Amino acid sequence: MLEKKILIVDDDEDLHTLYGLFLQGESFRIARAYNGLQALEALDKERPDLIVLDMIMPVMTGEEFLVKLQTLDLKMKNTPIIIASVNEKIPHDVLRCGNIRATLKKPFTIETLISKIHEAIG
Amino acid sequence: MLKSHRSVRFSLRYKVALPVLIFVLFILFLQFRTTYRVVAAMVMERTESRLRAIAEVFAETIKVPLMLGNQEVLLANIEWMGKRSEVLSVRVEDTDGKILGTAQPGSSSDLPEPQVPDFVGAKRLTPDTYAVSVPILGYENRRLGRVYILFSQLGFQSELRKIFMERLVLAFSMALLLALATAVVTWLALRPLIKLKRAAQEILAGDLTARADIHSFDEIEELAEAFNEMVARLARSLDSLRARTEALEESEEKYRLIVENASDIIFMLSPQGELALLNEGFSGCSREELLKGGLPRMLSLHSADTRDKLLQALRQIEEKKEAVTNVPTTHIHQRSLSEIYYLTSLTPVLDHEGNLKQVQGVMRDVTELRSIEIMKESLIRDVAHELKTPTAKFEMALNWFEKVMETQKEKDKYSQILQILKSNTDRLMRTITSIMDLSKLESGMYKIEEQELNLNEVLEQVASDMEPLCRQKKIELERNFCKLPLRMMGDRDMLYRLFVNLIGNAVKFTEVGKIAIKSSLKGNEIFVEVSDTGLGIEKKDLEIVFERFVQKTASTVGIGVGLTITRQIAGLHHGSVWAESEGLGKGTTFKVKFPLYA
Question: pTM above the 0.90 mark?
Answer without folding.
Answer: no
